[in-house]
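Final report, closing paragraph on structural work. Over the funding period we assembled a curated collection of sequence-structure pairs, and we close with a single example.
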Amino acid sequence: MDRFWGMQGEPLLYEGERQIISADNIKIGGTSKGDSKLKDLNKGSFYVTNVRVIFISIVKKKAKLVGEKYDGLSIFYSDMTNAEKVGPGGRSLKIECQYKTHKFIKKTAARIYFKNIPSDVADEVINRVIESQKDRIEEKKIAPKKKESIQKTQPPPEPQKPDVPADIQYMINELEDEDIELQCPKCGAFIKYKPGLETCPACKEKVKFFAD
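Its predicted structure, as stored:
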């Protein structure tokens, strides 16, 4: 819905949107980056709904087309970063926001002032912005965390049991770190045996130091 006003300049609302409060003869001003046409807007009507604020102004009284006669802006509470009363007696409402003029135009920062606005209208907007910010904080809190990738780890390989008879193994355990001298069954050389040794250091042949 690019145009949000009807034939008589009344706001056109979305399904489920409802008007809460409004005020006429409101002046608008402010600073905005991008193509927000604040300087072209005159006094207009300010509407507060359950999802946004709407400002509609007559820009060309004699225009026959409704799209040329009226202009304005619409700001959703979800785009507002702050709203507060300012000026003498708090008669102006300042809204800071990331204002999006069109769905195809990048969001731009804006600070917009609505002057001579009734206090109850300003309070309604401020409360709506506060509630919207609370909702955004709660949404961040309950956002599901990314599941950590579970890496399957292979169990460490079981240590190979040396091919040693039980009685010899008992002797090795008793001697602990001491070397055991055995004779190679192939070359006859005496070598220092340690558990797991399968190749004779003398003849370089693969041998069984203990019979099956």
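The chain has two domains: 19-136, 162-212. The longest helix spans residues 119-142. We thank the funder for supporting this effort.
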